[in-house]
Every structure is written in structure tokens, then in C-alpha cells.
Write a structure and sequence with these properties.
Elements (H helix, E strand, L loop, with lengths): L7 E4 L5 E2 L7 E4 L2 E2 L11 H9 L4 H6 L11 H4 L4 E4 L5 E5 L2 E5 L27 E3 L10 H10 L4 E5 L3 H7 L5 E4 L3 E2 L8 E5 L19 E5 L4 E4 L8 H9 L4 E5 L6 H4 L6 H10 L4 E5 L13 H11 L14 E3 L5
Parallel strand pairs: 7-8, 8-9, 9-10, 14-15, 15-16
Antiparallel strand pairs: 1-3, 2-11, 3-4, 5-6, 5-17, 6-7, 11-12, 12-13, 13-14
Helix pairs in contact: 4-5
Length: 338
């Protein structure tokens, strides 16, 4: 008996503009989003291998007490200037031309994983937020409790999300307005002076036992006439960086993940290590490099301070320019970034 050919289709949000010429939409194979062209299902036997193999940096990691510094206070929430503020892990407060975004808000502990460092302000103080941007639905990026808190304190909030994320958003709020997009699609519920696009990442989705790759993943482009900001989301190293650069040109500000990369056999298709992040940034012809996805939660084998040390060594060797490593809660003014 011959094997059946995989059931393949391409989808997007038909109401939105797709800006990449000839792009048919996100590929779905047997009702799962593909990772570009190929279906990717992480091998969870690697988790067992990870637990049994031991960490060669166990002693170094145990003695590494590094946590990102924190600038306490909520002045950035009420300031008028355009800025980027890291709130830990992959959570960012961004104000662009008076419009305020909160990306991947994780404001509390994760299930079974406590925050290693706090927020600069209470979650309830995050007000005057216009949009929440959700890159994907892993629990360290889409947290229902955090989304409910932000929604409760921002009555005019809207959400920009990936394809098929709507049911999760509805579980946080039945009435929260949202818009889903596929890769290379432009959201149309934002002010005319801004362009927001959902762009590719090399990753996967799973929250439960039976939802493998049922929600899309990706990154964001926030574009004005003056600057282009790129938020990479969670991603491994793949050819999408070349495609994003070809589509959007040099990216003035690159917010790049640099943590949760060891052991390599388990993490390399999902996350970037610092060297890969810098390689991607150079492909993107980036200006300012802002790291994320490190220091806030213990998710992997590398010592807590290793991502920062490696980035500083790479910068000192002249292999990148524009490195900014902000404290949590420290405003980076857009007028100072290129």
C-alpha cells in the first residue's frame, strides 16, 4: 500500500496585504504550520537525553549568580519620548511616534519556573498601552494571566498576533480586539504613520498534548519613515534573515534572542546562541543590537552571565557594532539609536 501524500495548503489572513511578491502564505502540512517549507516536530526524546547526559558546565552555572540589573520605577510609562524599555526575557515596552506597544508580556513566574529578577514596576502600573504584540504562543511569551492584567488596565488595548492565536487571546478576554497575520503580512488596525509586519522565524508551537504547530510563530517589524525596528521573536538560525533583509532593507534596531541555547542538540533549531545572533544581525545589516531572552528565567544549561560575556567579547573583537545591553527598566531613546 502506497503512503498517502501529505495534505498541503497555504494560508494567510485574506483581509491583509502580503508585501512579499509571490508569497503564497504560510505552508500547512497535515494541519500543522510548517517551519518555512518543512514540518518541524521537536524530538522530545532529546529532553530525556538532556536530563540523563548532565551539564558539562554544571559547576560554573551553579556559581554564576548573575542577574540583569534593574532600574526601578515607572517614569518611562508616562514619558513623552519615543523609547525601547526591556522588561526582562522577551518583554519590551516600546513607544514609537506616540503609539505604545508591549511585546510578549510575561509579568509573573512561569509554571514551575520562577523569575530570577523582577520588573521595574508593578504589572498593574503598565498603563497607556495601545497594542500588545504576541510573537508566538509558548508559555514564556504568551501568558494568559499577564495578558489579563494588561487588558484590565488598558481598556482600549488591541492585540497583533500570529495566525490561529485567537482562541488563546479569547481565553484571556472575550472582548479584546485582535488581528491575526501570516508572514510578510501588514496589520491594518494601526495608525497610518506606522507600518507593522509579521515576519518569519524558525521555531515551533506547543502548549498542550494535542496542539503541535497549530498556532503560527514569527517576529515583528515596526517601521516609520525614520527607523525600522525588528523584533526577532524566538528563532533558530535559518535563511529567513536573508529574506527579511531583502524585503525590508537594513534594519536600524535589531532586538535579538541570545539565551537558552544549550545543550546544542536540543536547542539549536529553536534558539540562537550569541554568535548566531550576531551573524544574523550582520546579515540583516543591523544598526543597534539589543539582546533579549536571557537572565530572567533559567531555561537551559548555559551559565546565566555567559550570553552577555560572549556579546561583549564579540563587540570588543570588532565583529559587531551598536551593541546596547540595557538594564531592565532602562529607557533607550529612539533618537539615540541608529
Amino acid at each position: 500500500m502506497q503512503n498517502k501524500e501529505p495534505k498541503v495548503r497555504h494560508i494567510n489572513n485574506p483581509k491583509l496585504e502580503t508585501i512579499k511578491p509571490g508569497y503564497k502564505g504560510n505552508k500547512i502540512i497535515h494541519n500543522q504550520f510548517a517551519n518555512g517549507e518543512e514540518l518541524y516536530n521537536p524530538d522530545f526524546s532529546n529532553v530525556i537525553r538532556w536530563k540523563l547526559s548532565g551539564n558539562p558546565q554544571k559547576t560554573e552555572k551553579k556559581t554564576d549568580t548573575y542577574t540583569p540589573p534593574v532600574v526601578a520605577g515607572c517614569d518611562f510609562i508616562h514619558a513623552a519620548e519615543d523609547m525601547i524599555v526591556w522588561l526582562g526575557h522577551a518583554t519590551f515596552f516600546i513607544r514609537v511616534q506616540g503609539t505604545t506597544f508591549l511585546i510578549d508580556p510575561i509579568l509573573y513566574d512561569l509554571p514551575m519556573i520562577k523569575r530570577r529578577v523582577g520588573l521595574p514596576c508593578a504589572p498593574e502600573e503598565l498603563k497607556n498601552i495601545d497594542y500588545v504584540l504576541l510573537s508566538h504562543a509558548h508559555r514564556d511569551h504568551l501568558d494568559i494571566k499577564s495578558l489579563r492584567t494588561v487588558c484590565r488596565n488598558n481598556p482600549n488595548l488591541k492585540v497583533l498576533a500570529p495566525l490561529h492565536a485567537g482562541s488563546l487571546i479569547r481565553s484571556a478576554s472575550k472582548h479584546l480586539p485582535y488581528q491575526e497575520a501570516g508572514w510578510y503580512q501588514r496589520y491594518d488596525i494601526v495608525p497610518d504613520h506606522l507600518e507593522i509586519y509579521f515576519v518569519p522565524a524558525s521555531h515551533w508551537h506547543r502548549r498542550g498534548l494535542f496542539d503541535m504547530n497549530t498556532v503560527l510563530w514569527g517576529g515583528f517589524i515596526i517601521k516609520t519613515k525614520e527607523q525600522t525596528i525588528y523584533f526577532a521573536g524566538d528563532t533558530g538560525f535559518n535563511g529567513h534573515f536573508e529574506e527579511i533583509q531583502e524585503t525590508f532593507g537594513p534594519l536600524d534596531i535589531c532586538i535579538m534572542p541570545v539565551g537558552a541555547y544549550k545543550p546544542t542538540f536540543m536547542m539549536q533549531k529553536s534558539h540562537l546562541n550569541p554568535n548566531e545572533a550576531v551573524r544574523a544581525y550582520n546579515i540583516l545589516r543591523g544598526g543597534t543590537f539589543i539582546p533579549m531572552h536571557y537572565g530572567t528565567f533559567d531555561l537551559s544549561d548555559e551559565p546565566a552571565s555567559e550570553p552577555v560575556r560572549l556579546l561583549e567579547q564579540i563587540a570588543a573583537a570588532g565583529l559587531m557594532r551598536g551593541l546596547k545591553i540595557p538594564a531592565i527598566g532602562e529607557p533607550l531613546l529612539l533618537r539615540d539609536l541608529a
